[in-house]
Amino acid sequence: MTALPTRTVAGITVLDTPLVNKALEYARKNCNDVTYNHVARSWLFGQFIADNNPELKDRDVELHSVAAILHDLGWSHNPDLISEDKRFEVDSANATWDFIIREGVKDEWDQHRLQLAWDAVALHTSSSLAIHKEKEVKACCVGIGADFRPLEASYGGVLTKDVWDAIVKEFPRTEFREGVTEILCGLCRTKPTTTYDNFVGDFGAAFVEGYSLKGKRLVDRITSVVN
Known about the structure:
- Pfam families: HD.
- The protein is mainly alpha-helical.
- It folds into two domains: 6-174, Orthogonal Bundle (Hypothetical protein af1432), CATH 1.10.3210; 175-227, no CATH class.
- The protein has twelve helices and two strands; from the N terminus they run E-E-H-H-H-H-H-H-H-H-H-H-H-H.
- Strands 1-2 form a two-stranded antiparallel sheet.
- Strand 1 and strand 2 (12-15) form a beta hairpin.
- Helix 2 (33-51) crosses helix 8 and helix 2 (33-51) packs antiparallel against helix 9.
């Protein structure tokens, strides 16, 4: 197999293919600063973690890269990427699929490869499932998760403070907590039915006036069933 071109970003060796670069451009165009910096950090964290874990090193790096970069298109300010009735992870996965179909080399992306990219994006918030999937799905998930956990809790224990600091310097965490909170609360306001069965609803219950999970949780539905 021909080696793909690479470059260095924040000290991390990453792919320098047309599709990866187009994915970065697409994320930059369709995401605000908080989201773009998050997906870029997730890509770089995941690249370093996977490259330094034997179980993940031999993966489809281009697939992993594109999925990581585009995994939060469901947070986009572009209404064309947002549905009225789907979880943001599904919107992100569908937008990623469409992007690859549009921008990828057709004979390099068969149905299986496309499905892996979709799964990597759709399952990125479901770590208890994603870590048991294919290595591309797992690598994407653990890289994204590294942006939400203390350094010492990152997958495999290979992420160092020097690596973390270099990535964060390149893609700052400015107003990350506030920005993510506002995005998730926005989902609770604009399409609440997509938030009742997942963690997004916790933000609505905590911060959005008038939002309630009462009667919407699985435990509520089960207890309301007449046997």
